[in-house]
Each structure stands twice: as structure tokens, then as C-alpha cells.
Amino acid sequence: MAVQDARGNDVDLSIYKGKVLLIVNVASQCGLTNSNYTELSKLYEQYKDQGFEILAFPCNQFGGQEPGNNEQILEFACTRFKAEYPIFDKVDVNGEKAAPIYKFLKSSKGGLFGDSIKWNFSKFLVDKEGHVVDRYAPTTSPLSIEVSPVNFMYFATDITEYLNILGYITSNGCYFYLQKDIKKLLA
């Protein structure tokens, strides 16, 4: 699947294979903007060197809260919030013109009361193999999402694979993990 970045360059999303992704629809004039952009930048800074990427997709479908052009959006995110993660072309996330990536995300992980994105800053966690692991509400703090290459535990096929994953975690210090899921696995 290919998308365009905010500078108009084509980006093949396969370049992110092997990385854990947090995909977010962003807006610059939303009540959730300051907290989300601030926390997204902190999360990215903390984990960017460990196989984690944030993919930000500006969207103007909710209250017209992302009215700027791509240049203005980049200026806002990169100057005010020091966003170093990729910011893509403005997209629709719902409706007939919804971007293919959002059609995929929504079909993979439906939301409460239907699949549509409800507001700015809805978040999707995608594992290293491209599986959508979880979906988070706009009000979910990015810093409360414990992301991990271990998200592929959901797709492990046998106990040996689980044990290999756990061995990797314990010997290498758990730089990313979904704490609630590891607790379930170990229970």
C-alpha cells in the first residue's frame, strides 16, 4: 500500500515492515491537539531507535479542525511540538473517499458502536507483521499505550514461539511491551 507524505512524495508502507506502528489521525485545532501531539512526540523520542514509528495522518473531517494545507500542518507539528515522526498528506478517514489505509485499519479493528473513526486522534497499534493489534479512542493518552515488538504474541502459533518471545523479552529488557497482555500470558 502506498500513501503520500505531507511533501507530496509517494511512500510505500512496506518500508515499515518489521516495526511497531502507532497510526493516528491528527488535527491542529482540536481540544485534544496539545496533549496528543505533546505525548506523541515524547513517545516517539523514547522509542524511535527501538523499532517504533508513529504515522500521523492529518484529517479535516471532524469539525473542520485541520483546515491548513500540508505546509502549514508540517510547520505547526514540527515547530510547536517538535514532531520528528512522519506526517502524511491530509486524508479522509471515513466515507467513500476514506484513504485505503484507514479502510484497512477500520476493517481490521472495529470500534465501539461501529467501525467509523469517531474523532481526531483515534489511534491504531500495528505489530511488526502488519497486524492491527488494538484501537484506541481519541481521549486515550499516547503515553498510556505500551507498544511493543512483542505485539506479535497475539499471532504466535505454539508454546515454543511464546517461550522464545519471552526469552527475548527477559534477556533484552522489555523495551516495548503490552504489559496487560504479558500478564495475561503469564497468568
Question: What's a quick, concise take on this entry?
Answer:
The protein has helices at 33-47, 70-80, 100-108, 159-172, 179-186, and strands at residues 2-4, 10-12, 20-26, 52-58, 123-126, 132-136.
The helix count comes to 5
**Any idea what the CATH architecture of the largest domain is?**
3-Layer(aba) Sandwich
Please state the structural category.
Answer: alpha+beta
Largest sheet: 4 strands, mixed
- Largest beta sheet: strand ordering: 4-3-5-6
- Strand tally is 6
Family: Belongs to the glutathione peroxidase family.
Protein name: Glutathione peroxidase
InterPro entries: Glutathione_peroxidase, GPX_AS, GPX_CS, Thioredoxin-like_sf
GO biological process, one term: response to oxidative stress
Notable traits:
187 residues, alpha+beta, Glutaredoxin, 2 domains, four-stranded mixed sheet, globular
What does this structure look like?
The longest helix has 15 residues, at 33-47. Helices cover 30% and strands 16% of the residues. It has 2 domains: 2-139, Glutaredoxin (3-Layer(aba) Sandwich), CATH 3.40.30.10; 148-187, no CATH class. It is built from 5 helices and 6 strands. The strands form 2 sheets. It has a 4-stranded mixed sheet with strand order 4-3-5-6, with helices on one face. A two-stranded antiparallel sheet has the order 1-2. It starts with a strand and ends with a helix. It is an alpha+beta fold and 187 residues long. Pfam families: GSHPx. Keywords: Oxidoreductase, Peroxidase. GO terms for molecular function: peroxidase activity. InterPro entries: Glutathione_peroxidase (IPR000889), GPX_AS (IPR029759), GPX_CS (IPR029760), Thioredoxin-like_sf (IPR036249).
